[in-house]
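Q: Given only this backbone (460 positions), what sequence would you predict?
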């Protein structure tokens, strides 16, 4: 008990010091950069998750379970395709460019940006075209649900989001988190206002459900593009010069990039399958409304997790530049804060889940309450997994993340297939419970595997 009080006092004291530096605008040194990045990334995450939660609630209430389930299924499919247009390029770009910037090699940083941009352009165009041409087959032959038009719109979504993601990765490398915050704020406001109003209008004029889904995805893509125009109003000394005076990437450097990118690609693809395979498999076995029950519960968790994690993404550029001793000290502090916060929120969620579901999305989604209770354990696991992943990426050891994630993904797929298909004979809701169990167990393994890999790394 005494040790716990000491830890709490220490963390409160650290938070006070951080807040004092923010109010004084003292962002000097690596610690200052980390605080500044974290501050704006926390604001971005807060804006993203609060906006996403509001948008999800509005859309779920307007569409009702069946149509909302089809929307969630279409979006999950689009995001899986989107992963193939990234393949870990964003994280790889951040690591290599931020490292060169830390060494004051602006011309080399510009060369890396140009190299990654060429790869990104080819991937985005190819994946977008593939999704458009295969949308009808996926919707009618695998899902047997009316979402083919939504998947076609997803091709344009991938096109816009892919290029904007590239710009955001460049901005993160230059520690321009403030610009990303402004773009996200514009996106959330425009999306939350425009799409629900248009959906209400579409339903009022009796537009078909399939066309409604098409316009939701299409407008979502356009809104993302519109919000990105804010990037062009940002002028950063050094960014344009780096691109203008960029040197070249030699063969040795390309080999280093490709080796790191290969590991990050495996991580990215495994990660997206890890995150969406449950919805994809449920889409084949159960009715649309049961997908909605599952998605609503998981969306609540997804909205809360970044608020607990203290923006570990913002720490990546700083992690890449500091010494191992500083890195481990920062890691331990982040671990303690995340653990304390998440445990407290889990307890609240276990008690209040039925009330939250009823008040927020309505009694039509009552079956989501028990799913949300079960998922509450992820509020502990997911932020810590994110912290470990950022640590291994920063120290140039993404292989540890890749190996753990690939194995966890395989476990997740196997468990989802077995539990969903086996429990279906007891009712569709039991298949949903099966997907919930598979998701939790696979993430427990993932967390334990990362923790074990870090221990091995420190011993070596």
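A: Predicted residues:
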């Amino acid at each position: 008990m005494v040790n716990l009080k000491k830890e709490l006092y220490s963390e409160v004291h650290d938070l006070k010091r951080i807040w004092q530096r923010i109010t004084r605008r003292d962002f000097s040194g690596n610690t200052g950069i980390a605080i500044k990045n974290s501050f704006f990334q926390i604001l971005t995450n807060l804006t993203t998750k609060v906006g996403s939660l509001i948008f999800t609630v509005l859309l779920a209430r307007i569409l009702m379970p069946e149509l909302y389930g089809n929307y969630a299924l279409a979006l999950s499919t689009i995001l899986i395709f989107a992963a193939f247009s990234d393949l870990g390029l964003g994280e790889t770009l951040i690591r290599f460019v931020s490292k060169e910037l830390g060494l004051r090699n602006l011309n080399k940083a510009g060369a890396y940006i140009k190299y990654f941009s060429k790869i990104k352009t080819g991937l985005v165009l190819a994946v977008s075209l593939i999704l458009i041409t295969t949308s009808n087959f996926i919707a009618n032959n695998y899902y047997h649900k009316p979402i083919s038009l939504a998947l076609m719109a997803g091709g344009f979504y991938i096109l816009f989001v892919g290029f904007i993601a590239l710009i955001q990765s460049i901005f993160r490398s230059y520690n321009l988190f403030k610009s990303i915050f402004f773009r996200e704020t514009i996106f959330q406001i425009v999306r939350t206002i425009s799409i629900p109003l248009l959906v209400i209008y579409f339903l009022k004029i009796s537009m078909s459900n399939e066309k409604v889904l098409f316009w939701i995805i299409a407008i979502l893509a356009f809104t993302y593009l519109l919000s990105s125009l804010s990037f062009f109003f940002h002028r950063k000394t050094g960014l344009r010069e780096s691109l203008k005076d960029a040197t070249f990437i030699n063969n040795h450097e390309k080999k280093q990039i490709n080796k790191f990118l290969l590991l990050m690609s495996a991580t990215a693809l495994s990660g997206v399958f890890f995150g969406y395979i449950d919805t994809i498999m449920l889409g084949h076995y159960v009715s649309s409304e049961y997908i909605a029950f599952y998605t609503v519960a998981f969306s609540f968790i997804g909205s809360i997790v970044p608020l607990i994690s203290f923006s570990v993404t913002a720490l990546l550029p700083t992690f890449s530049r500091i010494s191992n001793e500083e890195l481990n000290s920062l890691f331990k502090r982040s671990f303690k804060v995340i653990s304390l916060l998440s445990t407290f929120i889990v307890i609240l969620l276990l008690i209040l889940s039925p009330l939250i579901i009823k008040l927020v999305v309505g009694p039509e989604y009552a079956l989501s309450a028990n799913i949300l209770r079960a998922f509450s354990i992820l509020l502990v696991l997911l932020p810590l997994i994110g912290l470990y992943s950022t640590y291994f990426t920063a120290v140039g050891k993404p292989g540890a993340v890749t190996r753990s994630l690939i194995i966890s993904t395989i476990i997740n797929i196997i468990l989802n297939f077995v539990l969903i298909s086996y429990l279906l004979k007891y009712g569709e809701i039991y298949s949903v419970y099966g997907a919930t169990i598979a998701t939790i167990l696979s993430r427990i393994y993932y967390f334990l595997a990362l923790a074990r890999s870090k221990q091995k790394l420190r011993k070596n």
